[in-house]
Structures are given as structure tokens and as C-alpha cells.
Amino acid sequence: MHxxxxxxxxSKLLFITAIAxxxxxxxxxxxxxxxxxxxxxxxxxxxxQSTQSEASPSRADEDSNFFMPGRRVPQSQAxxxxxxxxxxxxxxxxxxxxxTSRVVRQxxxxxxxxxxxxxxxxxxxxxxxxxxxxxGSGVIVSDDGVIVTNSHVVKDADQFLVVLSDRxxxxxxxxxxxxxxxxAVLRIDNDGDPLPTVKYADTRDTEVGDIVLAIGNxxxxxxxxxxxxxxATARTDVGVSDYSFFLQTDAAVNPGNSxxxxxNTKAELVGVNTAIFSRSGGSxxxxxxxxxEMVRRVVDAAVNEGMIVRPWLGLKAxxxxxxxxxxxxxxxxxxxxxxEVFQNGPADEAGIARGDLITEIDGREVFDERGLKFxxxxxxxxxxxxxxxxxxxxxxTISVELAPPPGATEAELELLEGRHPFSGAEVAELSPRLxxxxxxxxxxxxxxxxxxxxxxxxxxVVRPGDLxxxxxxxxxxxxxxxxxxxxxxxxxWAIELDRNGRRISGxxxx
Length: 510
What we know:
Blueprint: H1 2-55, H2 59-67, H3 77-80, H4 85-91, E1 95-106, H5 115-121, E2 128-142, E3 146-149, H6 151-154, E4 159-163, E5 169-178, E6 183-188, E7 211-216, E8 224-235, E9 246-249, E10 261-263, E11 269-276, E12 287-291, H7 292-304, E13 315-319, H8 322-327, E14 336-341, H9 346-350, E15 357-361, E16 364-365, H10 369-377, E17 384-391, E18 394-401, E19 413-415, E20 425-429, H11 432-437, E21 447-452, E22 467-471, E23 474-475, H12 479-486, E24 492-499, E25 502-509
Antiparallel strand pairs: 1-2, 1-4, 2-3, 3-6, 4-5, 5-6, 7-8, 7-10, 8-9, 9-12, 10-11, 11-12, 13-14, 14-15, 15-16, 15-17, 17-18, 19-20, 20-21, 21-22, 22-23, 22-24, 24-25
């Protein structure tokens, strides 16, 4: 009996102890459980808020996206950590290396270029031949093997080799090289092999701040990708080519990147990298690319026509200063003022007159003549451009049919002979078409010296590229004027020339 009673007491004691321990655990665990519920509820609230934020942007987001639809800044840490790797994998196979080579002859003789040595000893010592190689980049823009690169990449080259990112190699032929735009078109025979390509972007939608990637082969180290933004558009004062209208980017561009791709986040070709501003030869964050609209124009002309014929507006213009803008009732300098119209040219036929102020072409603002010239050149002859013109305080839209500059595609050359200062000079009558082809002002008139025979008397008077303005006070507008002026019997010649925009005049006796 005693043992039984003892067992009952022990059991009660253990039961009470267990109840006490459970109560103590409940007191300790209860706050933690409550905190977990609150954290879970807060997490659900945050997720709901995040979902609501993604579905319904904040007022600030709406305001910022109102001006740039389709563009926004990263909204979360996850978006900031996104990678460009899928974009690069898609585009980089279409960016190729372009290897060029040419044979150059170089003499080791110190008298090789000495005219006195040649006069007394005849031909110069035999020159040694060596192969000079260079490297650039290119972009495949058509699956039939059409590749675009820079003109300076292929300049004076004899052979071209294209190497793809997967190490396939193809010999290429030069279809067209246009120094005026610094673009060149190559073609490879891929024998039906599939080729990756990049489609053109509509650069009218490109804005400052857009993210871009530059792909090329800088310094020959291998295909390299750099990223940056569009720093500026419509850069016309770079001076790299005659048709200066560049996209500026801070993506690192170095020697070897020339001809490479500048792409946007849609995997589209925004431009072809062509130049940098640098004092050291490396990237300083100021690179320039030729917009895709001009690239497409040159490629289409090369493939379909084998040559490029640039359309012409037939006018000259000057930038609008602040004073001119105020006088025209504008709140800011905008557009270009027409200073001269070519008779019977496209602008003249459309009714454009001197003093008109052109503010837009095809809906795009212009600020100087170079920009106007570039945007017109992105079209083909026969197409129409819409010019927004301010005249008499009111705006009007005038449609202009673009046409090539008048004149023959090949100049009629004449070799001048006789007893006069130009004996031995080959000349051509300067037409707007010839002037455009030579990169001169299409409004220039006169007779251009194209070549001078070796040892001719004309070397004492003129140089190739000189424009003969007048002879013995007779204005020279064409070859007939020059022939008439040189046909007179006289020993005194009063000559006026235009050499690189500088007037030279003098009198000489024969």
C-alpha cells in the first residue's frame, strides 16, 4: 500500500512538472510565432504592393514614361542585375573581322624620290615589294553574304578576308566603297551556308540616353563587347566625312572597332562605328557611328545599282542665329535659311525661294546645312521630301522631288596645248554633278584642272584641283570660254584661280 501511494504521488508530481514546462514553452514560443505571422503578412503585403506597382506605375513613373513611352528606369534590384548576355549571343555572330592586304613597293635607295637623280640616271632602283595588312570589323546585313564596313578599312586594299565569330573564313569582293560617307560594302560567297544577320533599327526613334552596345575587334585582341548610351544625335561638326550626321556614344570604341556594330537593346543595328575623338589613340568615351538609315541607303545602292547616286535639293543655306530667329518670330534658333537656289533645280521647281527658313525635313528638325544635306541623301532620286518652311510669318509644307545634280556622270576632259600658261594641263568643265562627285560645292562654276602632264609648262602656274576663274579679265564658265580666252594672240596673261577656296591672281609673260 505504501509503495502504491508513493507511485501515485510521483505520477502527480511528474504530471504537474510537465504542465509547467509546457506552459513555460508556450510563453517563450508565443512571441516568436506572432512575429512570424506579422513578417509573413508584411511579406504578402510587400508582394502585393510590388505586383500593384508593376501593374500600376506610380505617378512619378507615369510622368517620366509620358514623354518616352516604352522606356523606363529599373524598378527593382532584380531588374538592375539583368544581363545583356542573351542579346550579345544573338547579335555577335553577325559581327565579323575584316582582314585586308595590299602590295606596296618601297625602295631602300635614299635617291628614290630625288627628281635630279631620276633626270641624270633614269629609272630609280628596283623597289622591294611587301604585303601590308590591316584589320577592321564588319556587319552581315543580308543572308546572301552582304557585309557593310568602313571605307577607310578597305582603302587601297587588294585582297579581303572575312572571318566569322565561329571561325569560318571567306574571301570577299569589294562591291562599293564610298569615301563620302566612309562606308563600304563587301560580298562573300557562302555557298548556301546559313549566315547570321542584323536588321536595321529605325534611328528616328533613337534618343539620347538609350542603351547601346558596341561590338568589334579593338586592337585585334578578338571580338569585344562594350556598353554605353547614346550621348548625342545629329553630330554634324565632326569632320570625318562629307556627310557628317553621327550618333555619339560613350561605349568604348577603339582602333579595330571601325566598321563594327552599334546595336540597341532590341538587337537592331543602330549604326556602324567609324571614328573616335582621342589624343592617345584609345577610347576617351567619345565615339561616333554612322546612323543605320544612311547605312541602309548605301547598301541598297551598292547591291541594286552598283553605284550610289545622291539626291540633291539644289539649294544653299546657312544656320539660323539667335538674332535671325527673333526676327522670324521664333523663340529659339531653329532651321536653316535659304541663301541661294539653283535655277531649275528641285528646290526651285518646288517653289523654294531665297530667304525661306526650312525648319524640318520629313518631320525631323534641322539646325545646319549638313544635317539637311544628310537627311536628303538618305532618300533616293525620284523620291519626295516634305520640307516645313517658314515664310512671311506662317509655316507651310512643301513637297520636293529629289533629283541627281545636273551634268554628266563622267566629265568631258580636254588636254590644253599651245603657247599659253596652261599648256599640258588636262581640264574639265565643272558641273553640279561633277562637283558633287568630287566633294566640291555644286554651285561652283568654271573649269577644273584634273591632271598635268609630266614636265609641262602648266606646272609653273596651276595644280590639279585648281579652278580657273578668269583669263585676261574674261570670266570662265565653261570650256568654250576658256578656249576663246586662250585663242587670242598675246604674250601677257592675267590669270585668276581658286585653290582650296583661296583666290590667287597674277600676271605673267610668255
